[in-house]
């Protein structure tokens, strides 16, 4: 893999995943199909023969837990250094904090919540091919019908419209414009130098930034050093690199033109002449090649660097576990249509029931389900499109639909669970009914309770 250094940003205890995450279970260790979400990224990297990794975790305690799990699971397979950084430093701050470890020419930065089968090697190869300062992996937006980053439930209305707008050249290899989420409501302002240079730009709202980037290390470090307020790779560093990739030091009639304002109108005759020349040439391979030497052998625009994209094909799976809605969707996908990602062998009934699990009389576990090691179910239970963890004790006449039940959960007789996430060591007493709920670790749901759309959790000490 051409001497890329790999950094995995594994986060800490993400606020928008409460009560699923806690001090005991940092985000990286949240189970997806009964294995930590971080394992999906580590195995994707391993498949690309990337085995020398720095895993960055926010918070000392979370780093210890993640490091403990890694040293058990990957002891002979990968060489992983776990680095703890302060909480809430953001993705840019996390890279800044470990920058003294970065020595390679190019850095691959991957978010630890990515579940995908897109080979990182393909992104790295595109990056090297174009000699880019950054190459971002883009994939189709999630199909759950919710904008990226929304969590479903009560937030659906508030966050509608938070999409990415991405501007590409006609070859769909160069990133010309990016606006994320909250910026999108404003007017779109595009630098004239970019429009002049490309002639046309395709604006896409159907692509998601997968948070997998290849960076030229020297450029990334320069930006992080100069811009010490930058917090996020996606919202600060990437847009900055995109904005600054063509400096508008344009030579018109031999006279240098000052840096131009993005909203200034193109009026002068010479500007029109230049624009028409560019439009006439817009079928050239790419504006970066064209503007290395401008029309007629002049150099009207000084190209400073290239920002590129790698767009994953539509038949690839790509999702980020960045909300509770996404957590539900990914668990369902990994035991359903994308079950090849789970690493498990599915039965003829298209499910996974661990050989040590016990099922009572007339209990059914449907297709696209998973029942973990040592779990026991009573009589007349029904499980549909759900993941049940290890060593759970489930009574009789229990229904579980579209839900995730983590390890060591006790569920009393007659309970009904739909569209919910039940964290480890939870106790549901008899006849509890949950619909679209999240129950934090160790919580006790009283007998006969009926909860809808609630987050139930013990107070953190």
UniProtKB/TrEMBL annotation:
Question: What GO terms in the biological process aspect are recorded for it?
Answer: cytoplasmic translational initiation
Compartments reported by the entry: Cytoplasm, Cytosol
InterPro entries linked: eIF2B_gamma (IPR051960), LbH_EIF2B3/5 (IPR056764), NTP_transferase_dom (IPR005835), Nucleotide-diphossugar_trans (IPR029044)
Q: Does the keyword tRNA-binding apply?
A: no
> What GO molecular function terms would the record report?
guanyl-nucleotide exchange factor activity; translation initiation factor activity
**Keyword field contains Protein biosynthesis:** yes
Q: Which residues form the EIF2B subunit epsilon/gamma LbH domain?
A: 354-447
Record Gene3D superfamilies? Hexapeptide repeat proteins (2.160.10.10), Spore Coat Polysaccharide Biosynthesis Protein SpsA, Chain A (3.90.550.10)
Its keywords, alphabetically, are: Cytoplasm, Initiation factor, Protein biosynthesis
Q: Nucleotidyl transferase domain: from which residue to which, for each copy?
A: 6-141
Q: Which CDD domains match?
A: eIF-2B_gamma_N, LbH_eIF2B_gamma_C
GO CC, one annotated term: eukaryotic translation initiation factor 2B complex
Q: How does it assemble?
A: Component of the translation initiation factor 2B (eIF2B) complex which is a heterodecamer of two sets of five different subunits: alpha, beta, gamma, delta and epsilon. Subunits alpha, beta and delta comprise a regulatory subcomplex and subunits epsilon and gamma comprise a catalytic subcomplex. Within the complex, the hexameric regulatory complex resides at the center, with the two heterodimeric catalytic subcomplexes bound on opposite sides.
Q: What does this protein do?
A: Acts as a component of the translation initiation factor 2B (eIF2B) complex, which catalyzes the exchange of GDP for GTP on the eukaryotic initiation factor 2 (eIF2) complex gamma subunit. Its guanine nucleotide exchange factor activity is repressed when bound to eIF2 complex phosphorylated on the alpha subunit, thereby limiting the amount of methionyl-initiator methionine tRNA available to the ribosome and consequently global translation is repressed.
Q: What family is this protein classified in? A: Belongs to the eIF-2B gamma/epsilon subunits family.
Under which name does UniProt file this protein? Translation initiation factor eIF2B subunit gamma
What organism does the UniProt record list as the source?
Answer: Quillaja saponaria (Soap bark tree)
């Amino acid at each position: 893999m051409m001497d890329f250094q790999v950094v995995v940003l594994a986060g800490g205890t993400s606020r928008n995943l409460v009560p699923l995450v806690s001090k005991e279970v940092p985000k990286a260790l949240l189970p997806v199909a009964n294995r930590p979400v971080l394992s999906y990224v580590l195995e994707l990297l391993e498949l690309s023969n990337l085995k020398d990794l720095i895993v960055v975790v926010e918070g000392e305690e979370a780093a210890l837990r993640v490091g403990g799990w890694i040293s058990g699971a990957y002891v002979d397979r990968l060489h992983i250094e776990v680095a703890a950084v302060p909480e809430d430093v953001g993705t840019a701050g996390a890279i800044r904090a470990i920058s003294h470890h970065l020595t390679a020419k190019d850095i691959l930065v991957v978010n630890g919540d990515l579940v995908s089968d897109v080979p990182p090697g393909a992104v790295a190869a595109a990056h090297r091919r174009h000699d880019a300062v950054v190459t971002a992996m883009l994939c189709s937006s999630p199909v759950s019908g919710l904008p990226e980053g929304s969590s479903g439930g009560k937030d659906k209305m508030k966050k509608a419209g938070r999409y990415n707008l991405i501007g590409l050249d006609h070859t769909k290899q160069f990133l010309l414009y990016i606006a994320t989420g909250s910026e999108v409501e404003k007017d779109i302002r595009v630098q004239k130098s970019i429009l002049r240079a490309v002639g046309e730009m395709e604006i896409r709202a159907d692509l998601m930034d997968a948070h997998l980037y290849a960076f030229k290390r020297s450029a990334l470090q320069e930006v992080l050093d100069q811009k010490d307020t930058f917090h996020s790779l996606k919202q600060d560093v990437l847009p900055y690199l995109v904005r600054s990739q063509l400096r508008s030091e344009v030579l018109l009639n031999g006279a240098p033109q000052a840096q131009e304002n993005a909203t200034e109108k193109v009026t002068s005759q010479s500007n029109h002449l230049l624009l028409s020349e560019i439009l006439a040439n817009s079928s050239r391979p790419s504006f970066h090649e064209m503007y290395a030497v401008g029309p007629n052998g002049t150099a009207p625009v000084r190209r400073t660097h290239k920002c590129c994209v790698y767009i994953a094909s539509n038949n690839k799976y790509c999702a980020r576990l960045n909300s509770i809605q996404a957590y539900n969707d990914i668990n369902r996908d990994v035991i359903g249509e994308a079950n090849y990602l789970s690493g498990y062998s599915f039965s003829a009934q298209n499910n996974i029931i661990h050989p040590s699990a016990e099922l009572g009389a007339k209990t059914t576990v449907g297709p696209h389900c998973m029942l973990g090691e040592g779990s026991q179910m009573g009589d007349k239970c029904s499980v549909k499109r759900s993941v049940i963890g290890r060593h759970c004790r489930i009574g009789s006449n229990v229904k579980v639909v579209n839900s995730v039940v983590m390890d060591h959960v006790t569920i009393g007789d007659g309970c009904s669970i739909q569209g919910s996430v039940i964290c480890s060591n939870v106790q549901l007493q008899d006849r509890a009914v949950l619909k679209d709920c999240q129950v934090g670790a160790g919580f006790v749901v009283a007998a006969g309770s009926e909860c809808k759309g609630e987050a139930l959790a013990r107070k953190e000490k």
